[in-house]
Amino acid sequence: MQRATWVQRRFVALVRSDPNGFRAGFVALLVSAVASLVAGLTLGSITGTLEDLPGLLVLVPAAIGMRGNIFGALGSRLGTAIHTGTFGGARRLDTPTGQGLAAAMLLSLATSLLLAVLAKLIAVGFGVENSISIADFVVISVIGGVLSSIVVLMITLGVATFSTRREWDFDNVASPIVTTSGDMVTLPALFLATFLVQIDVVTPVLAVACTIVGLYALVEGVRSRHPILRSIVRESIPVLLVAAVIDVIAGITVEKRLDALAATPALLVLIPPFLAQSGSLGGILACRISTKLHLGLVPSDRVTLRPVAEDILLIATYAVPVYLLVGVSSDVVAALAGLKSPGVLEILAVAVIAGVITSILLVIVAYGAAVGSYRFGLDPDNYAIPIVTSSLDLLGALSLILVIVALGLT
C-alpha cells in the first residue's frame, strides 16, 4: 500500500510540475504511434518487393533506425540548447544550432553509404540467398537516405521552434516526432529508390556518384573548420558505426523470418510502429536524463535511480496506452488494407507482452547509455540516443519475434 501511495504522489507531482510538457509528450506519442503505421502499412504492402530484392529487409530497420539515431541526437542537442538558453541561429553555420543541423546532414549522408556496405556484408555473412548487389544497396540506401533526411531535418527544426514558442518541454516531444517522421519518410523513400536499381547502366553510375557524395560528407565533417560541427561528427561516427551494426543485425533477425511473416502481413505492419514507439520511449528517457546530467541533477559517479525515478514513472505511464494503441491500430490498418491478420487479440497480445519486455530493457539501456557516456567525459546528447534507439531496434525486434513464435503465430 505504501508503494502505491508513493507512486501516486510522485505521479501527481510529476504532472503538476509540467502539465503542458506531460500532455505534449503524451499527445506526441499517440500521434506518432498512429502516424508510424504509414511505415508499417508500407512494409506490409511491399512483400513482393522484399521477396524480389533479397536482402533489402536487412537494410530497412537500419535505415529507419539511423534517421532516428542522427536526428534524435540532434533533437537531444536542441533540447539541451533550449534549456540552457543557447537555441537559435539555425540558418547560420557559425552558431551551435546551425553547426548541429549541418552535422546531422553530413552524418546522414556518410552513414547511408556505411549502411549499404554493412547490409551487403551481413546479408552474405548470414546466408541470404541471391542478395542484391552492393551497387543496388548503395543506391537504395544513399538516395533514400537523402530524401528522408531533408524532410526529417525540417520537421525536427520546426518542432523545436514551435515547442520553444509554446514553452513545451522539447525533451518530451522530440523523440516521438523525430522517430515517427523518420519512419514515415524513410521506408517510402527507400521503396522509391528501389525503382533505380538493377538497371544496367543507370545503377552503376548512380552507385559511384552516391559513393563519392558519402565519402565527401564524411571527410568534410571530420575535417570541418567549424569546431562544434567537427566535434559532433568525430564523436558520433564511432557510436553510429556500432549502432549501424546493431540495426543491421535487427534487420537480419526479421529477414530470416520473412517467409513466415509474409504469410500474415499484419505482423509486418506491427513491426515499424512497435520499434518506433520503443525507440521514442527510450529516447524520451535518455533525453531527460541527459538534460539532468548537464544540469548536475543526476550523479554520474555512482548508480542510483532515485534522481530519475519520476522519469521512469513517466515512461511507464506513456508505455501502457501506447503499446495498446500500436496493437489495435496495426490490426485495424491491416484489415482496411486487406492484409491477412492472425486476429486483433493475437496482435494485441504480441504488442503488449513484447512491450512489457522492451520497456524493462529500455530503462536499463537509456540510463546506462546516458550516465555511462557522461561519466567517461562524452556528451550524452551525441551518444545516448544512437545507443538507445539502435539497441531498442534489436531488442524490440527480438522481443517481437520471441513473442510471435511463443504464441504460435508463425
3D architecture notes:
By secondary structure, the protein is mainly alpha-helical. It has one domain. 82% of the residues lie in helices and 0% in strands. It is built from 15 helices and no strands. The chain has helices at 2-17, 19-35, 37-45, 47-52, 56-84, 96-125, 134-166, 170-193, 202-222, 227-255, 258-263, 265-294, 309-336, 344-375, 380-406. Helix 2 (19-35) packs parallel to helix 13, helix 5 (56-84) runs parallel beside helix 12 (265-294) and helix 14 (344-375) packs antiparallel against helix 15 (380-406). The longest helix is centred in the middle third of the chain and has 33 residues, at 134-166. The model has no long low-confidence stretch (mean pLDDT 83).
Name the poorly predicted regions.
none
Biggest pleated sheet: none
Oligomer state of the chains in this structure:
single chain
Cα distance spanning the termini: 42 Å
Please report the number of helical segments.
Answer: 15
What is the share of helical residues? over 70%
Map the helices and strands.
Elements: H1 2-17, H2 19-35, H3 37-45, H4 47-52, H5 56-84, H6 96-125, H7 134-166, H8 170-193, H9 202-222, H10 227-255, H11 258-263, H12 265-294, H13 309-336, H14 344-375, H15 380-406
Short characterization:
Helix content is 82%, strand content 0%. It contains 15 helices and no strands. α8 crosses α12.
Key descriptive features of the protein:
410 residues; 0% strand; globular
